[in-house]
DNA sequence: CAATATTATATTGCGCACAATTTGATTGTT
DNA sequence: AACAATCAAATTGTGCGCAATATAATATTG
């Protein structure tokens, strides 16, 4: 067993010790707070263009991919189900930025496409990522650290593996 | 300028290049997904003891700290306001696990205390952290990586220095 | 081809999360 | 003491996020 693995094992052993119910011992709590904080940070910027954060995510997909896309396809990207997406997409439809129509090839599906207004909105959205970084008050170093942390989250929660290092390959094969 | 700083600066320069509106370029999106995933993972475990995830967080605070605590104090720990907490605490009150009463010393405040039932619930909650790790299907290595990522999130979103690990606590008390 | 199973979306109901506002208590100022 | 300013919690209204269920279309099976 190599030194790295030993260190992880020692850390893992320590997990159950002490008071596992202390708030500052919770692994998930900072993730929960970060999730709330992020939506809060986007809100004032997105409200200027009439979007909520999950609506913005839908638009990112429609702008980047071959729209129209089915509700299910959008949901699999965002890890959201029709119970969340259907009312959200209806609000976006009544705002005039997306179209909803049954797929002729499979009447179970509903295809979501962009309207002219929805396509035009992209121009207004282009400044959002830059503005967010400005609003966040984070230094380039903070952002870099956040990005590194996010690569981990992406691997663990989105099964979106970055190219594995030799060390990780080693660990997997054992 | 040292090598580390130069690397961060180069990464920061690259941020604006390409398509900043691509979903897989979003720094915040994995945090959003992780937040949703975490609440989803806790739900079946917590429903066994009649709690939601934010209610569980309130209980963690009340179990660890000198209860009773004001709504505002709880809110500052969880970064939630009275608009979220008041109805949540009322539901917990009607479930019989907390008490709500005006602070005699300052009638603006409402103090939240544990009932006997609320204190007893702690025993049932003790197995939750361990069970969650089991349910998550994460390896010790995954958990360690997550923990490292979370230390960053805690610093950035909770302005919090990393707390001592259980192993370190152990060492200190000896 | 009919019966059954599966799939995609919609609906219902509940509990957050939060902006905006209100109500009532306390503090600060003159 | 009077009055404005501040503060703590509650209230109102909107939009998720999701479990459970319903509805309807497609696929599968006998």
Quaternary state of the chains = homodimer
The major pleated sheet of chain A works out as: 3 strands, antiparallel
Q: Considering DSSP H and I runs of 4 or more, what fraction of the residues of chain A is helical?
A: 55-70%
Number of strands of chain A: 3
**Envelope shape of chain A:** globular
Going across the major beta sheet of chain A, what is the strand order?
Answer: 1-3-2
Name the poorly predicted regions of chain A: 163-174
The rounded Rg of chain A comes to: 21 Å
The CATH homologous superfamily of the domain at 51-121 in chain A is named Winged helix-like DNA-binding domain superfamily/Winged helix DNA-binding domain
Give the topology string of chain A: H per helix, E per strand.
HHHEHHEEHHHH
* Number of helical regions of chain A: 9
Report strand % of chain A: 5-15%
- Biggest interface between protein chains, with counts per chain? A-B, 73 and 72 residues
CATH class of the domain at 51-121 in chain A: Mainly Alpha
Q: Overall mean pLDDT score of chain A?
A: 88
Q: Pairing-aware structural class of the strands and helices of chain A?
A: mainly alpha
Distance between the termini of chain A: 10 Å
- Which architecture of the domain at 51-121 in chain A would the CATH scheme give at its second level? Orthogonal Bundle
CATH topology of the domain at 51-121 in chain A: Arc Repressor Mutant, subunit A
């Amino acid at each position: 067993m190599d030194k790295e693995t030993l260190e992880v094992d020692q850390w893992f052993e320590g997990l159950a010790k002490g008071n596992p119910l202390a708030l500052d011992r919770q692994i998930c709590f900072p993730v929960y707070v970060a999730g709330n904080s992020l939506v809060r940070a986007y809100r004032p910027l997105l409200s200027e263009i009439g979007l909520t954060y999950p609506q913005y995510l839908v638009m990112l997909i429609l702008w980047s991919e071959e729209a129209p896309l089915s509700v299910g396809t959008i949901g699999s990207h965002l890890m959201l189900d029709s119970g969340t997406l259907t009312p959200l997409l209806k609000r976006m439809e009544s705002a005039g930025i997306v179209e909803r129509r049954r797929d002729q090839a499979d009447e179970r599906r509903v295809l979501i496409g962009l309207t002219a207004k929805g396509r035009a909105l992209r121009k207004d959205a282009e400044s959002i990522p830059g503005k967010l970084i400005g609003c966040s008050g984070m230094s380039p170093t903070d952002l870099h650290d956040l990005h590194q942390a996010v690569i981990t989250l992406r691997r663990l929660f989105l099964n979106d593996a970055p190219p594995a290092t030799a060390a990780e390959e080693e660990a997997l094969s054992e």
